[in-house]
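Handout for the seminar on molecular recognition.
Each group receives one record of this type.
Step one: identify the two inputs.
Step two: read the structure output and locate the region that could contact magnesium ion.
Step three: write two sentences on what you found, then compare them with the reference statements printed after the record.
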Amino acid sequence: MKQLLNMEDVQVRIKTHTQEITALELEHLTLHEGELVALVGETGSGKSMTASSIMQLFPTQKAYIGSGRIVFEGTDLLTCSRKQLDHIRGKEITMIFQDPMSSLNPVFRIGDPIIDVIRTHTGVSTKEARERAIQALKFVGLPDPARMLNRYPHELSGGQRQRVMIAMAMVCEPKLLIADEPTTALDVTIQSQILYLIDKLKKEKGTSVLFITHNLGVVAKMADRIAVMYAGRIVETGRTQAVFRSPRHPYTRMLLDAIPRISEERDRLPVISGRVLSPAEVGGGCRFANRCPRVTDQCRQAVPPLATVGDWHEAACFEPLEEAR
Ligand SMILES: Nc1ncnc2c1ncn2[C@@H]1O[C@H](COP(=O)(O)OP(=O)(O)OP(=O)(O)O)[C@@H](O)[C@H]1O
Ligand SMILES: [Mg+2]
């Protein structure tokens, strides 16, 4: 499989009033062509920061990339020219967000930004761009796409707006789509339709997808590989099936145990005790040490690096779980 995106030693730092914190410390993450990788982890674990660092668009001006390499098809996005970067993000890499209302401008008709994006990146005529926009709205299953182009965001439902966002993100046939919690604001039936759509994009257009979610269950069927994040670091990566069948990091094990299964009768769901340390509280050791049942002295003193534990399988743990048979 050909590599599309390769992130190495990416550190994102945030300046607060009193101090500077490291919000993300990512050793490595690779995406291949046509692959769907799910980035999972609880709130504050650094999923959105990972996406922001690829796009170099942060939610706060206080955040910046301290170091690292983010190589997309041979170009390091952190050192390339602004012109190159602007071409790549928008054309080759696009993103959809959790809340489409905040990304669609309420004063423009739905079609305006889509036609704009097509014209900017392909240079086709307005007429041709309009035709492509209609095709994109059709692909995402919006009814009466030609008329839809002339409607305003507030005239659409949440699910329809999310479809417009996907249409906008896919219209120039990007090589990589980053979807940051694209379904959390939607009800369950619409959620599964949006997931189906992203899967269709991957299968029919060969688009690689970085799919961000806090819900492991959502990605079980869709993702080729999973990267689990905890407190700003990736703690485990592997093929989806392998990670589900045999998680090697104690945190992944706990995350999986927390997914309710209908077939099981349980009085209570297991709870992961303790809480995530904030970046400011993190000492020299493993960030999961304060919640880990397998903790040793070594874990409190040094940060375990992401190490190979199996075929395509890595875990950042000094005491990884045995491989399940
Ligand atoms: N606007 C901000 N100002 C200060 N710190 C921030 C800001 N956004 C994020 N952080 C810090 O960066 C860390 C990673 O945040 P990030 O937004 O990537 O988490 P996430 O995994 O996307 O969580 P969620 O599931 O809630 O979206 C957080 O723990 C927080 O300390
Ligand atoms: Mg987030």
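Reference statements: Residues 104 and 153 are 7 Å apart (CA to CA). The pocket of magnesium ion (ligand 2) is lined by residues 47-48, 180 (CB under 6 Å).
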